[in-house]
Write a structure and sequence with these properties.
Shape: globular
Distance between the termini: 108 Å
Largest sheet: 5 strands, antiparallel
Structural class: alpha+beta
Helix content: 10-25%
Strand content: 35-45%
Length: 359
């Protein structure tokens, strides 16, 4: 009888513990949900993406030019009301490379960031366990690694099939990457499905040079996606010289690659019109990177009585037209205003518009 009472008491105690545990967990979960919403109601109603009345930004490092948009570290992503600019919420991302020229991209449904793990800034050779990855942060708080760029395994073997650079299309469906390096047989610009990571296009440099032997070999610049996401367009370059321009159509992956003007020099002022495939450029370098060399070039041009000429070159027809001339040191500040209009400035300060006259 005593033994039966003993087991009964143990059962009651265990039941109390179970019921208490369940009640505690429910209360904890409810309090957690409530606390996450206090002062942050705007975030609670969102799914993965920004709404039409929201924008996102991050603090810019004043050390660099504003056009570079280099972030301060740690990286703080803010979501703001588009009309009032008032911050709704923010989140922090660690482990970014602040010296990379393109460490992140902001999109409607996610922030994409290059991150390093087990990285020692004081060492040029990293220890086993080092990794560099591309991470995606949705606006509902979800985060994940979506691509591995490089790693050093437990044996100290460094593996990196792709360069640590990327471009995401506006619809966040495609990932453009640079595979290998110049001189390697499989060196290519690759476009992958961002979710499956299957290759949709591999634009191999060797294939391009086989089809276009007049192109000077160089590196792929990943370029930019157009605002509507229809094209990825960029260049092949060797140092400060653009050797060719490419344009890739989304979904069909039809690719157009055209060599630049045969008389263009490295370091000259230039602007490409991808829609019409016209290149505006000058024939005397604006700056070489070395002041002394630049001054020698300008002085030689003056002694020879040469002027700096602005040309528009049709990459398809391989024809050029002279648009304007000025002193050798003048910078025209050329800019395509549209697919047919090129803006440039004369030494008088007058801004001129050159219009393409296509038949």
């Amino acid at each position: 009888m005593i033994q039966r009472k003993y087991f009964f008491l143990i059962g009651v105690v265990m039941l109390i513990f179970v019921i208490g545990g369940v009640l505690y967990w429910q209360i904890y979960q409810r309090s957690t949900r409530i606390s996450s919403q206090v002062g942050n109601e705007e975030r609670a109603h969102q799914e993965n993406c920004l709404t039409d009345d929201e924008i996102t930004d991050y603090p810019i490092n004043p050390k660099y030019a504003k056009e570079v948009k280099a972030p301060l570290t740690p990286l703080i992503i803010s979501v703001r009301d588009k009309a009032t600019q008032k911050e709704k919420f923010s989140f922090q991302v660690g482990g970014i490379n602040p010296d990379h020229y393109h460490p992140l991209e902001l999109h409607k449904c996610g922030v994409y960031v290059l991150r390093k793990f087990n990285y020692d800034l004081t060492k040029s050779i990293q220890a086993p366990g080092y990794r560099e990855e591309l991470w995606r942060y949705n606006y509902n708080g979800h985060e994940e690694s979506i691509f591995l760029f490089a790693e050093k395994d437990a044996l100290g073997v460094y593996k990196a099939e792709f360069n640590n650079d990327f471009r995401i299309d506006p619809d966040e469906k495609y990932l453009a990457l640079e595979r290998g390096y110049f001189g390697k047989d499989n060196y290519a610009l690759v476009i992958k499905d961002i979710n499956t990571l299957n290759d949709l296009l591999a634009l191999n440099l060797k294939d391009i040079l086989r089809q276009h032997p007049d192109i000077i070999p160089g590196n792929f610049e990943l370029g930019i996606w157009t605002e509507d996401g229809k094209y990825l367009q960029g260049m092949i370059f060797q140092g400060a010289l653009d050797t060719a321009y490419y344009r890739i159509e989304r979904n069909s992956w039809k690719t157009e690659v055209l060599p630049t003007s045969p008389d263009i020099l490295a370091g000259v002022e230039r602007a490409i019109n991808f829609e019409k495939m016209y290149l505006a450029y000058v024939d005397i370098p604006t700056f070489t990177g070395f002041q002394e060399v630049y001054e020698q070039i300008i002085e030689r041009a003056k002694k020879e009585g040469r002027q700096k000429n602005l040309y528009v070159y049709n990459l398809k027809a391989k024809e050029k037209i002279k648009v304007a001339s000025a002193d050798p040191e003048w910078r025209f500040d050329i800019k395509w205003l549209s697919d047919t209009e090129l803006q440039y400035e004369l030494p008088s300060g007058e801004e001129k518009i050159y219009k393409l006259n296509e038949k």
